[in-house]
Design brief:
The structure holds two protein chains of two kinds.
Chain A (H helix, E strand, L loop, with lengths): L4 E3 L2 E4 L5 E6 L6 E8 L3 E9 L2 E4 L8 E7 L2 E6 L8 E8 L7 E3 L3 E5 L1
Parallel strand pairs in A: 2-11
Antiparallel strand pairs in A: 1-3, 3-8, 4-5, 4-9, 5-6, 7-8, 9-10, 9-11
Chain B lengths: L3 E4 L2 E5 L4 E7 L6 E7 L6 E7 L4 E4 L2 E6 L4 E6 L8 E9 L2 E4 L3 E6 L1
Parallel strand pairs in B: 2-11
Antiparallel strand pairs in B: 1-3, 3-8, 4-5, 4-9, 6-7, 7-8, 9-10, 9-11
Classes of the chains: A mainly beta, B mainly beta.
């Protein structure tokens, strides 16, 4: 299996621009997670999907952040408008069942907002 | 919510020595405790995990122990090698949310 796939791997954008991060989970997994990693806050959960439905988005920082999962093999995390404090590494992870089984992480997208 | 504390934040050992990383958690309902290894520029890689009905699990040079009464769990790496150098994260699963420790930067010197 190819594992969790994320794109782009690196993104540099200017403040105010829209940013879209993409994720393809492992085939057969029905749970998908978006995490953000920063030096200050470590790894924190942003949103959790189960069977393509958002179950918990309480970790999403503010309304500038939105996430979708139109089908079992694709998810996006969008930031509009972006701000310098959004600079971080964003990870997507997938699991066969989020409450019971292992979560596997993608390689991440390093976002820099100038 | 769940709070996971991890110690030490940095650890330096000589090749061949053992390394131990310790974590504590607060939510007594947590029932799954994975450990991840993260190398520079890569995503966290699951290396070993333990569930609440087991006290110890071993996989070659890596072992994890769990004390549910005291709410702490530990990662043990024996016969360390330079390629073990990385940041290690413990986590506790509360519901569906993995709550991570702040990480331990392990350096294994030849």
């Amino acid at each position: 299996d190819a594992g969790v796939i994320q794109s782009p791997r690196h993104e540099v954008t200017e403040m105010g621009q829209e940013v879209t991060l993409r994720c393809k989970p492992i085939s057969g997994h029905n749970s998908l997670f978006w995490y953000r990693q920063t030096m200050m806050r470590g790894l924190e959960l942003l949103i959790y999907f189960n069977n393509n439905v958002p179950i918990d988005d309480s970790g999403m920082p503010e309304d500038r952040f939105s996430a979708k999962m139109p089908n079992a093999s694709f998810s996006t995390l969008k930031i509009q408008p972006s701000e310098p404090r959004d600079s971080a590494v964003y990870f997507c992870a997938s699991s066969f069942d989020g409450t019971k089984y292992e979560q596997y992480f993608g390689p991440g997208t390093r976002l820099t907002v100038t | 919510g769940e709070n996971v504390e991890q110690h030490p934040s940095t650890l330096s050992v000589q090749e061949g020595d053992s390394a131990v990383i310790k974590c504590t958690y607060s939510d007594s309902a947590s029932n799954y405790f994975p450990w991840y290894k993260q190398e520079l520029g890569k995503g966290p890689q699951l290396i070993i995990d333990i569930r609440s009905n087991v006290g110890e699990k071993k996989d070659q040079r890596i072992a994890v122990t769990l004390n549910k009464t005291a709410k702490h769990f530990s990662l043990h790496i024996t016969e360390t090698q330079p390629e073990d150098s990385a940041v290690y994260f413990c986590a506790a699963l509360s519901g569906y949310a993995l709550n991570f420790g702040k990480g331990t930067s392990l350096l294994v010197t030849p």
